[in-house]
Amino acid sequence: MSVGSKSYVKNSGVSLIEILVAVVVISVGLLGIAALQVSTLQNNHNALLRTQVTALADDILDRMRANRTNAASYARTFGDPAPTAPGGGATQAQIDLYEWYTAVKTLLPPGKDGTQVDGQIDVVGSPNPTVTVRIKWGEQTTSSLADMSLTFATSTGI
């Protein structure tokens, strides 16, 4: 090295600040993936509930079609007392309503806002009635402020 010349030392490697920035970026990305996973699981659960509601509505409609002559016996409104377990001599409609209502209460969650799971069956007309089935339940979202109660309704002739 000559006198008066400058010498530079070549730095190699990574600084601590660069490592910390990389860790922060990766952490934010992993938190985003975790939040997406939670949201996906909640949406899948809500889709399952909606599928069960549709199947429950189809179930009672099929039971009513099998017992068409007594279709009016299936009528109930929201807030009616739960059907009691049928004993000896119970009609088919009483048995069907008990089994259906028990399934509705078992498979569907209430809302966090106090909404109770319930079912309503409207039977209009005769001899070929139009039946409307309504089922109420609570659906949860990832935000506790957005929890809501839903009502599914379907109408058909039986």
Question: Would you give an account of this structure?
Answer:
- By secondary structure, this protein is an alpha+beta fold.
- It has one domain (16-157).
- The chain contains two helices and three strands.
- Helix 1 (16-66) runs antiparallel to helix 2.
- It is rod-shaped and about 115 Å long.
- The relative contact order is 0.14.
Helix segment tally: 2
Helix fraction, binned, reads 40-55%
- N-to-C SSE series? HHEEE
- Give the number of domains: 1
Mean of the pLDDT scores? 88
Radius of gyration of CA atoms, rounded to a whole number: 30 Å
Oligomer: single chain
Numbering strands along the chain, what is their spatial order in the largest sheet?
1-2-3
Task: Tell me, briefly, the overall form.
Answer: rod-shaped
Give a short account of the largest sheet: 3 strands, antiparallel
The proportion of strand residues reads 15-25%
Number of β-strand runs? 3
Low-confidence regions: none
Beginning-to-end CA distance, first to last residue: 102 Å
- Class by alpha and beta content: alpha+beta
